[in-house]
Amino acid sequence: MRPTRILLWVLLATMLGTGAVFAQTTGQVFGYVQDESGDGIAGATVVATSASLIGERGTTTNGKGKFILPLLPTGEYTIKVSMDGYQAIQLTEVTVMLGRSVTANAVLNKGELLETVVVTSEFPMIESKSADTTVNFNAKQLDTMPTSARSFRDLAKFVPSITSVDVNTSTGQGAGFPSIRGEGQYGDNYLIDGLTVRDPAVKTTGTPLPFDSIDEVQIITDGFSPEFGQALGGTINVITRSGSNEFGGSVAYLYKGDDTTADFRNTLFANPSAYEDTDPYVNFGGPVVKDKLWFFASYNRNESLDTFQETEILDSAGLVALVLPEGITDYENDTYFGKLTWAINPKNTLSGNYTMREAATSGLGASTSTVEARSGNDIEDTRWRVNYQSIFSANSVLEVKAGNVDRQSLTTPDNNLTDAQYRITGLDVNTNNAWRLNETN
Predict the structure, then answer these.
(1) What are the strands, taking DSSP E only, across 394-423?
(2) Residue limits of the TonB-dependent receptor plug domain (predicted)?
(3) pTM of the model
């Protein structure tokens, strides 16, 4: 009997999890339906539709006229409210954001008019259901944000109280990781579709995600709820795009080079004499079965080439302390993403996505070390996610997430001077249910 009791308690605890805070991959709409005198209307029908939602989502008001529409994908919604004996009303441009609740109240006038009253207004976006201090970037904003790195990590630099510079990294180099509340690289947690992707060894963002596969980013800087955990500074919560009932996509090619970029003088490391960065990408999505099954796919390739001239490092007296010979750092990265979203029925949804990255770098250390100390690195990353959502009632929902991240990184000498001096094979790190394998020559 004991196993049965444990199972019942687990199911009960899961079913009691409600609201937008519990559903970190979605948002919700709630409000009151009232008559002209301000009394709540019980039994009114509330239906939400959106290009982000497969089919439609409906509910009815309770005895006080209150309604809740939980587990809504982020996006812009139209809410239609109707009741026998009253004129129907349609609320447009209701924006649902990740991890937030939006209030949409409706006042119905008595009468059986055939026309529906359309109301467009600014609905309050102040979060009243959570104490989290958050900043959200939706899909429209992501298209216009000046993110040269095309990474969700890069968005943090637009949030007050967050720094994202080289000194926040453990090596003092690189694009810089967000430092939230002064905790640096090791104080952050990164979530994609509700599950952590943080590298357990070096606390970075883990397997990258094609920027065009991101639907919304939520950056939580203070007062976050216990379920986010595993972070002393803050949390960056990301959800991925789904398809839609219409086919669509985009293709682009981005180029950066020393002829299009301002001069940069780094006093600690050698500066490249020539620099080139190319970033072609393509994405496409649509319906497999309209109002039932959607797909979305994205591919991103990034290649950069830094050429370093011989550089003299001076000491405090102005004398040459070290000479860094010329060298080239070559980086190639291919990232693939695919996602399926299936509406089993109006109250049950199943989605799954898969991400793969293959990256190769040669000439690591060309800006900081001699030829003998330079290395190459090959990385193969895979990540999958499955998310099941079920709505029992307006106040009882179930969300089950499962996922896996597998990263293999091989570092080898980037020269043929001697054989490898040491080899470590199968160095495993198992932290917070994450597994990491390193092979080093």
Answers:
(1) 396-413
(2) 136-235
(3) 0.80
